[in-house]
Amino acid sequence: MDTEELLEAARGGSVRAAGRLLSLVAGPGRDAVLAALDGAGGGAEPRVVGVTGPPGAGKSTTVAALVGEYRRRGPRVAVLAVDPSSPYSGGALLGDRIRMAAHATDPGVLIRSLATRGHLGGLAAEVPAAVRVLAALSYDPILLETVGVGQSEIEIAAVADPAVVVLTPGAGDAVQAAKAGLLEVADLLVVNKADREGADRTVRDLRAETGAPILTLVASKGEGVPALVEAIDAHHRADTSARRTARAHAQILSLAQTRLRSHPGLAALAADVAAGRHDAYTAADLLLKRLTD
Fold first, then answer.
1. For residue 190, what are the domain limits?
2. How far apart are CA 277 and CA 78, in angstroms?
3. How many CB atoms sit inside 10 A of residue 241's CB?
4. For the chain, how many structural domains are there in total?
5. Cys bridge to 10: 18, 36, 109, 150, which one at CB 3.0-4.6 A?
6. pLDDT along the chain (293 residues), means of 10
7. Separation of alpha carbons 153 and 174, rounded Å
8. How far is CA 183 from the centre of its chain?
9. Residues 85 and 2 in one domain
10. Are residues 23 and 95 in the same domain?
11. Are 34 and 56 in the same domain?
C-alpha cells in the first residue's frame, strides 16, 4: 500500500498499517508520511504526557498503570517507549511486549518501542513525527516514556505537556533529580513506591526544591493512579513565548546533533584526527561545512 492507503487503513483500525506508518517516519519515508497527513488533515491536538525519571523509579510500571486507567475511562491510548540503543546494532534493547504485556492485545492500545540510536535528550529523533501520526489516528492521550539513563531530559518538555517526573523514596532522589535538571522540566512530580519507608521525607525534600505539584503512587498496586490521571488532565502549562522558544531551541539543537552523529563523513574525519592529519577543531568545522554543502 502507498502512504495514503496506509493512512486510510490505519484510520479504519488497522494496527499493522499504523505500525507501518510509524516505521516510515523513522526513516527516509518521513517526509512522504507527513505530507500525506497535511493533505488529509490531522486530528485534534492530543494530550501528550511525558514520563521520565531515574532508572528503577518505576516509569514503565507507571505508564502501564496509566494506560489501564485511561482505558477504563474509554479513550484510545498510544505509548511510545524510548529504549536505550545498542551502540552496535542501533536496535532497542527492551521490547514493548515484555514491558506492556497486559495491554499488548487491547485493540484500543498502540504500543511502540523506539530506539534512541545515539540521539541525546532522552527521546528518539522520530518522536515528533510519530506523535503527529498518532494524533492523526485519533490516539489521545499519547504517553512518552523516556530512556531515563542520566542524559539531559529537557527535550521532553518541548514535546510533552505535562512532563511527569517519577522518583522513588530515599537514596537522595530529590537531590539527584535537582542536580540532573529533572525538576526544571517537571510539570508534575510523582513519588512512586510510596509504601516504602522514607516516602514522606522524599515528598518534604521535593517541596523544598520545587513548587511543582507532588503526588504519591504505588503503581504496581494501582494506588494513586486515578489521582494522577486527574492531575494530568487538569494540568495547563503556564507558558511564555520565551519558554516556548527555549524549548524549541533545545529540540532543534538535539535533532541537529543527531544528524551530525549520523553524517557519512564523520568516520573519516575521526580517523584523520586520530592519525594527526587534523585537529578536532578543524574536523568540527569541516563536518559542519559538509553538512551545509
1. 42-238
2. 49
3. 7
4. 3
5. 18
6. 87 88 85 82 76 85 93 91 52 47 79 65 67 90 76 65 88 62 82 92 88 92 95 80 70 74 88 93 90 79
7. 16
8. 16
9. no
10. no
11. no
